[in-house]
């Protein structure tokens, strides 16, 4: 039996397999509210064959969005729009459904990727960004506002408010965004955190505020649902966040009640030399899993089902988080089952596409080669 298609207990839920849909920004919201695009996108992902689906990075404040078109969960209008999408996904799929909550920090107020990725100034529709320290992301990016203790408490309360909205919507879990150079990882990394108070300097101090926020979220989140986090394995820059730090942070999250971590990395600075390649983040996940025992997800250009299976067989991770491969092939999980000789449930409307009625192996082999 394939490990990729074996069950996994996560919180109070039994996942039917170990394929999860990573949160993927769609840059298609209006004032933070989801649109019909999200119905289509998340509906597709819910029918992918994955057992768990994470809604894209969602800002807990307007200033916490990456772009003006990113999803937020800070207003009643946002909540109503997201509830509509969640209800739709529930009507077509039994996928375990959660959300990634975060704050973009100094990487906020930017253009959408296809519009240039650079900083959007206030006169262009952007806003003053916030960060642990007044350190710009790059030379051509504006200085962010250095957060005061009052500001930090305001943002913590915004996270708590978004958690309460997530509970009302009926989501199964929350993933705390702690990587890719956004606010939590800005606090964690010595490259972006230059504070001299109790929230800067040592690793314990740099972890302090992210853990305080996590604990505040845990306090208001229903006990029968779970919390996780996406964390950095490294900044890919000398003097930055390290795999040793990742192990310590993951251990602290586990003690605080996190049910899992997914290990990614990079993004704190723009000039990092990242050795991109299939599974390039997996070694960081492997170490976190081995040294902390927390359920760990692997991510990073994982596109081949046999590659995903190998990661699990080697004990490098407990589940696989898929992103770009699912955008390219929204039925990746169903096709992975064919490749690994497994069977999965199909939506009844799509059941006649099941291999039990035809032989798609050759076609899928051609698709895999294209991937």
Summed up, what is this model?
With 371 residues, this protein is α/β, with parallel strands linked by helices. The chain has eleven helices and twelve strands. The strands form three sheets. Strands 3-4-5-8-9-10-11-12 form an eight-stranded parallel beta barrel, surrounded by six helices. A two-stranded antiparallel sheet has the order 1-2.
Written description of the protein model:
Strands 3-4-5-8-9-10-11-12 form an eight-stranded parallel beta barrel, surrounded by six helices. A two-stranded antiparallel sheet has the order 1-2. Helix content is 35%, strand content 15%. With 371 residues, the protein is an alpha/beta fold. It contains eleven helices and twelve strands. The chain has one domain (8-370): Alpha-Beta Barrel (TIM Barrel), CATH 3.20.20. The two termini are 24 Å apart. The model has no long low-confidence stretch (mean pLDDT 95). α1 (36-46) runs parallel beside α2 and α6 crosses α7. It is globular and about 65 Å long. The longest helix is centred in the middle third of the chain and has 21 residues, at 149-169.
